[in-house]
Amino acid sequence: MLIVMRQNASEEEISAVVSAIEELGFDARPIPGSNRTAIGTIGNTGPVDDTAIRGLSGIKEIIHVTKPYKLASRDFHPQDSLVRVDKTTFGGNEFPIIAGPCSVESEEQIESCAEFLSSRGIKLLRGGAFKPRTSPYAFQGLGLEGLKLLKNAGRNHGMKVVTEAMDMITLDDVVEYTDIIQIGARNMQNYPLLKMVGQASKPVLLKRGLSATLDELLLSAEYILNEGNQNVILCERGVRTFDTHSRNTLDITAIPVLKEKSHLPVIIDPSHSSGDRKRVIPLSKAAIAVGAHGIMVEVHPTPAKAKSDGAQTLDFTQFDLLIKELKMLANVLKVTL
Amino acid sequence: MLIVMRQNASEEEISAVVSAIEELGFDARPIPGSNRTAIGTIGNTGPVDDTAIRGLSGIKEIIHVTKPYKLASRDFHPQDSLVRVDKTTFGGNEFPIIAGPCSVESEEQIESCAEFLSSRGIKLLRGGAFKPRTSPYAFQGLGLEGLKLLKNAGRNHGMKVVTEAMDMITLDDVVEYTDIIQIGARNMQNYPLLKMVGQASKPVLLKRGLSATLDELLLSAEYILNEGNQNVILCERGVRTFDTHSRNTLDITAIPVLKEKSHLPVIIDPSHSSGDRKRVIPLSKAAIAVGAHGIMVEVHPTPAKAKSDGAQTLDFTQFDLLIKELKMLANVLKVTL
Amino acid sequence: MLIVMRQNASEEEISAVVSAIEELGFDARPIPGSNRTAIGTIGNTGPVDDTAIRGLSGIKEIIHVTKPYKLASRDFHPQDSLVRVDKTTFGGNEFPIIAGPCSVESEEQIESCAEFLSSRGIKLLRGGAFKPRTSPYAFQGLGLEGLKLLKNAGRNHGMKVVTEAMDMITLDDVVEYTDIIQIGARNMQNYPLLKMVGQASKPVLLKRGLSATLDELLLSAEYILNEGNQNVILCERGVRTFDTHSRNTLDITAIPVLKEKSHLPVIIDPSHSSGDRKRVIPLSKAAIAVGAHGIMVEVHPTPAKAKSDGAQTLDFTQFDLLIKELKMLANVLKVTL
Amino acid sequence: MLIVMRQNASEEEISAVVSAIEELGFDARPIPGSNRTAIGTIGNTGPVDDTAIRGLSGIKEIIHVTKPYKLASRDFHPQDSLVRVDKTTFGGNEFPIIAGPCSVESEEQIESCAEFLSSRGIKLLRGGAFKPRTSPYAFQGLGLEGLKLLKNAGRNHGMKVVTEAMDMITLDDVVEYTDIIQIGARNMQNYPLLKMVGQASKPVLLKRGLSATLDELLLSAEYILNEGNQNVILCERGVRTFDTHSRNTLDITAIPVLKEKSHLPVIIDPSHSSGDRKRVIPLSKAAIAVGAHGIMVEVHPTPAKAKSDGAQTLDFTQFDLLIKELKMLANVLKVTL
Residue D234: CB partners within 8 Å, gap ≥ 6? Predict the structure, then answer.
């Protein structure tokens, strides 16, 4: 059970609710958010009789939670959430494509990508400036300079931009320059960072961790939602299994399951899941057919020279083929590319 | 390196090849098949200079294997294999649907399924007679009686039938009554059974094991092909991972990878992979979009009363919806449903 | 609920029990074994009131099953089962070591192993005659000839022997020549084979499948026990995970869990789990410390020349070191090596 | 290839090395650390002929890397590293036990633990102050207050303390109050945090991520070592697999493999891997037998009332039994408890 207090609830009102819960034999846990306090009830194994609580003052809502997450749950929010970024909407009948290089490498490279992609009607440009790399000796991104190059490329070509926030200290810069804050798979359970992006003013693209269950993904979304940021887009990008024929195993079943459990939009990243550009087109077609709310794909003018993830990156010709194939499917699936 | 001997190669010819291989410092391993002998070369870590062997008599072909399997490999057989079952072809631009109940339960049940499915243009009827069940106390199938009921239902409604062979002793009965022999996931590495179906006169539907790599799946196909049966259809049906939101994790990336590695047709089983009928339609749409050569789905007049796998089984209304959705996609994907 | 009928129960008595169950609204499933019939109750989701059944004739026992398996469960058989093979006992305070080559390769090889091992007090000799190999081109074992060589080597050196049964057709030969029938990981869910070894007169060493849960392993044991063979030894040999630093991931926690769930003895195979002889000694030490009832290790006079699994096989010097290290631990752990 | 520059190497010297690498046709990547610059060579697939580089000025060392990590590798540092914390040494022939509650909950609780544990000769007290919790509604720890209570309890009872650092902002507090900084499994790939603890003055206990390979664990250690902090202790705490009989699957084989690959000490956490206090004693015995350099176990005066992880926590009586059993083994294994 979760008791959501009004925004202006006083300390006394909160204390009274806590006492009432404790008298029922449970543990009460006030959860201060940036806008309001919620009070969780811990220790009950089944539904709680809330008669003794309902009448207290300062309460906005009593929610009988049947899942470990609440704000992310469709029980709590039956209709689909729409996340709007300028002219693009995630979660409705559009199928947005986020495209761009793994890393921003130079002005020339990112401008070239933006020019090409915008000419194909793509509205969202991705590019990493702060890169989480398994090896300390691998290219770590251009940092703030990369953010600026990305932002400029977007502005020059009428695109909004997506980039990854890696830590609490550089988050402010990311928020300033980006339109969508990406949280990468390795940071899906970096809770302090999730709380901070929960207080940010930009939508969040939350990637599923390498071995995260869907409930864990939704609990991570809950961290963000609970701080007041309702614009969360989920991203399935493959999980780690015994299999080695693809870099990760794309869990395509996650899409209908997440759409049932949650109201949040969910997209697929066919580049990171497969690790192989030859798989990007078939997996993107599967993504649109299974009902995903979009895809994020890596594109580079010359993938062979990319400083990271070249093997999974499309060149411009391949990207054109991808769009052509998706358009045919979008048409019969009644979604707008 | 694999030396394939002519069918009528003599023992002396085989011995001469073995000696030549051994003189090169490798181990020679004659592999007697039902029709011919092949001689494997073991111990080489790279390509072998075959000069000393090429001139020997009785040799049909020398194959320099770069993968652990050969007959199943596209290197060896570049064009797509077509597996024909009456009016249906797997591996070309058809998208055959195999449908029917998990188990044959009664004459009424299987006739009802066949009548319905044939009225929808479905040409292949599935139904289990010998059931591999995790528990010895679970319904084990009707056995020979089930085979007869399935065959009759097929004949009465102009359908060909698919059923599982579970062991070497009942295989003869299965071969007599079925049109496609299914090898289930638990038997994917039952090599004596694979060898026996390799000598059978019916096509084989080989399901991927619960934790089999694609190379292991293709090596199991190799056991069948190596005995002379070239009509093998592969089936992706989900693998076991940490995740629990579906019964198994459908590895959809396996489809493009298998199509690249092998010439054999490959279909998807969305019922067993998900274990939940609500996922069957979205996963079937993903299957046709990703390029699978067909699907196998479970259908039952009243799934709630099915003796096995009811939760993942469609009823007739849901099946009609599935067909309607697939038809739209088939149209733009240029495949024939 | 499971109703175990007396051995001489008549068809009428069985029918009466079936009717009584059906009148309670459940499905009754007679499960004929070779010695007796049991009747499973299907469809109840909780405990069943057995008042209407208890008084019927022909019933030996009514068992209220709370786990999917019964005969393998400690609920049903609280004390540890002891499996005796000549002078060796599994399941008590001995720590038997089964040792020998992966495959029987020649008389010289297996005699040499037996001579060495018996001189070290080892009483159980392993050696494969029928080998399940992932590739059809790999060494498949010496077959019947291998069985005879193994048996002879055992007899010549006062050892009992362990070898794998791969299929229903060669099982009779295996049973004739071996003292313990091994069921390999790939056949853990080959139910027809399990039923046949359940009717055999020799103890069974049942290896856990590559991705089998412990409940699935115990259900496979249940197939054997249910046919009347009570001498089942379980074997943990590693499971398949994302990790590649060992061939399989040894699930050492399975030992205390299986000992809690079941009364059956459970041993560890450090050779197959690791796939690397350098790990055999530390893992064997972990096995004895964690409370396993024994180990099975691969030993060969010259591992580098072994026809299978050489990388994980100890030579005689390494085996001596293994014994020396285990003896020290056995002493303080109060188990007899 | 990695070129380590002297501490005082000039920009010109660094540029000269970069140019020399580029002339060889490779990509040069300067990696500025806090103390020195290293230059990685990217793009070579095999060993590089370093003749043209060796003579340049400002170079401290040229390292031909054969593994993705270097500083963590035994190739680079053949002898075992010893990590000393007051009177305790990790990595030698001691078997240190880190013990204490999952979370610091109150002064009474942590003092009670410290009193008990110090009376048993335990020298290292653990306790979480900042807790990474899957749910935003779960107990998040006492924060700074918890750090102070832990430090005091340690001081009062002559123990050193271990606690987790969760983020870059609270790291300073953690470093001030703790003697060993724990990096939890969820943060194993939080690279900005790893870099910061790499510059801290306290030893680091680095836990393996839920689905991290051993190479990824060692690359995370490399991030810390590369910043100058050589006192890293690795911790195996179970990985996520398909199995559910334990919370995570303890990968005991990781111990001998890590000891071969790396010079760093490696301990086991039997509490988090199993999630069940009944497994802690057998797994701890396996840990000492397999050659781990210590364990970390959860202990609480009344586990049933613990605010987190109660199910896997020992009470004082159980802890005494653990110590008794480990002492017997330590004696024959020649390690000091």
Answer: D206, D208, D217, D221, D258, D262, D264, D265, D266, D267
Residue of A nearest to C210 (CA): A242
Rounded distance, CA C310 to CA A94, Å? 57
Given an 8 Å threshold on Cβ–Cβ distance, is B257 in contact with A246?
yes
Which chain C residues are within 8 Å of A240, Cβ to Cβ?
A: 242
Q: Tell me the one-letter amino acid at D60.
A: K
* Nearest-CA distance D93 → chain A (Å): 31
CA C69, distance to chain mean position in Å, is 16
- DSSP lists the bridge partners of residue C100 as C298
- Is some CB atom of chain D closer than 8 A to the CB atom of C254? yes
Do residues B36 and B60 lie in contact, with contact meaning Cβ atoms separated by under 8 Å? yes
Mutate to test the interface with B, among C134, C183, C220 (most CBs of B within 10 A): C134
A136 interaction partners in chain D (CB closer than 8 Å): 31, 191, 219, 222-223, 226
Helix axes C214-226, C191-198, angle to 10 degrees: 50
Angle at B160 between CA B155 and CA B162, to 5 degrees: 120
Which residues from chain A sit within 8 angstroms of residue B329, using beta carbons? 289, 329, 332-333
With bands split at pLDDT 50, 70 and 90, how would you rate the model's confidence at A4?
confident
Q: Which residue of C has its CA nearest to A239?
A: C242
Task: Determine the residue of chain C that is closest to A240 in CA distance.
Answer: C242
Q: What is d(CA B1, CA B43) in angstroms, rounded to the nearest whole number?
A: 10
| ipTM at complex level | 0.87
CATH 3.30.70.1140 assigned to C2-63: yes
Query: In Å, how far is D30's CA from the nearest CA of chain A?
Result: 9
Residues of C with Cβ-Cβ distance to B167 under 8 angstroms: 168, 190, 192-193
Which helix (H) or strand (E) segment holds residue D21: the answer is helix D11-23
- Where do you find CATH 3.30.70.1140 in chain B? 2-63
Does residue C135 belong to the interface with chain B, where contact is any CB pair within 8 Å? Answer: yes
CATH number for B83-333 (one of 3.20.20.70, 3.30.420.40, 3.50.50.60, 3.40.50.620): it is 3.20.20.70
Lowest mean pLDDT among A56-60, C209-213, D273-277: A56-60
Contact C137 B38 (CB under 8 A): yes
Instruction: Tell me the pLDDT tens digit for each residue of A250-277.
Output: 999 999 999 999 999 999 999 999 999 9
pLDDT digits (tens, 9 = 90+) for B314-327: 999 999 999 999 99
> Measuring CA to CA, which residue among B242, B234, B113 is closest to residue B182?
B234
Whether residue A210 lies within 8 A of chain B, CB to CB, comes out as: no
- Pairing state of beta strands B204-207 and B59-63? unpaired
The H or E element spanning position B283 is helix B280-290
**Long-range contacts (CB closer than 8 Å, 24 or more residues apart) made by B51-54:** B52/B20, B52/B23, B52/B24, B53/B3, B53/B17, B53/B20, B53/B21
Using the beta-carbon criterion (under 8 Å), do A240 and D29 form an inter-chain contact? no
The answer to whether residues A52 and A3 touch, using CB atoms and an 8 Å cutoff, is: no
pLDDT band of C86, cuts 50, 70, 90 = very high
| Numbered ranges of CATH 3.20.20.70 in chain D | 83-333
Transcribe A179-234 into DSSP letters.
SEEEE-GGGTT-HHHHHHHHTSSS-EEEEPPTT--HHHHHHHHHHHHHTT---EEE
Predicted TM-score (pTM) of the model is: 0.88
CB C37 within 8 A of CB C60: no
- Is the Cα torsion angle D84, D89, D90, D91 positive or negative in sign? positive
Closest C-alpha to B231, from B74, B91, B90, B83: B83
Residue contact D286–C282, C-beta within 8 A: no
Which of A38, A137, A186 faces D40 most closely, judged by CB atoms? A137
**Nearest residue of D to residue B243, measured between CA atoms:** D242
| CB < 8 Å to A31, chain D | 136-137
